[in-house]
Amino acid sequence: MPSGKSLLLGVLTGGVVGASISLLTTPSSGADMRLRMKEQSERLRDITQEMKENGIDLKEQLTQTSKEGAELLKDLSQDIKTSVESWKSTVEPHQENLQEHLRQIEEGIKELEDKMKEQNTQQS
User: What does UniProt give as the signal peptide span (predicted)?
Assistant: First the structure.
């Protein structure tokens, strides 16, 4: 997760630089400036803590989602395997009968073709 760390480092660096520039370029007393710097650092710390908590929550959600997804895929593959096995057991006993019927149909078609050829030759 180097890109997440880089993003966090960039946000923090940008926040510190931006706060420093705005504080240093604004004309104000030293006490006022220290107060502002303190407030900015507290806000920055709060934002950092919130980002850390959100990151932890996101990590936990991703872990949970990936576990649930893996379980779902496992269940789905088992269901598919069971369905295929059931289909095979249903079809196999009838497979020989179907092949026999197809052979009979092919023989019937061949006999019809032969008869049609005979009739055509007799008519000619």
Answer: none
